[in-house]
Design goal:
The chain has 243 residues and is α/β, with parallel strands linked by helices. It has a domain of 151 residues: Oxidized Rhodanese, domain 1, CATH 3.40.250. Helices cover 37% and strands 14% of the residues. The chain has 8 helices and 9 strands. The strands form 3 sheets. It has a 5-stranded parallel sheet with strand order 3-9-8-4-5, with helices on both faces. A two-stranded antiparallel sheet has the order 1-2. Strand 1 and strand 2 form a beta hairpin. The longest helix has 27 residues. It is elongated.
Amino acid sequence: MKMNQLLLISIILSTLLFAENILSEVQKNGLTITQEDNTTLTITRIKHILCTEHHITPDSLFGDNYAGRRVPDVCKKSFVTKVGVLQPMTLSKHIETVGELEVLVHIKKANISPETHILIDARTPQWYKQMTIPTSINLSFNTINYTEDLDEDDFQNKTDYLKYKEDYINMFKILNIKKTNDGLDFSQAKSAVFYCNGSWCSQSPKAIMKLINIGYPQEKLLWYRGGLQDWVIYDFTVESSGK
């Protein structure tokens, strides 16, 4: 076997091992990252002592209301199911649907390389301020709008035009999209995980579809379908900036 083939195999195996180590770490311990100001942020499962001491059995998992009657209330979660529109498991064959562990791995990558990876909360600001996944950047689905050659004359007033311009400039900055004389340059666009309130929420799918329509590479778009509802159900850390 040629030397360059052996080198390629070695690189692939090293990459797979690195990915496996990251996954093993977040499965066991959650995630702790060091931010730019040297403060640490820990995202872990919140484990109440009554929950950790309770044995997992079929009766516990599939009893009354998905939890057995003997399971302590602090170990249970109640949530609304009859809201919104249930979303499909996949938005496109080119867009990966991810779960909680993949989100944690993505957060870790974004902490190491913020110029290439990002976690996006696609909900409107009032929802974002109430509760969000740590490290998320708010890019509301209704601010993702861009049409080439659209100018002030296409709007009813200057205020609407300036708002439209402010929104797309902010979007370009967040996702690292470049505007050139030849159109939009996505060569340095970030790998972005999008999410909203849950599997019944359409805001993140709308955000993703809007980006696809302006040419964003689908392979750089990932979708956390479970969103905040699943994140909270599994007792992962959230943060709030006030209502």
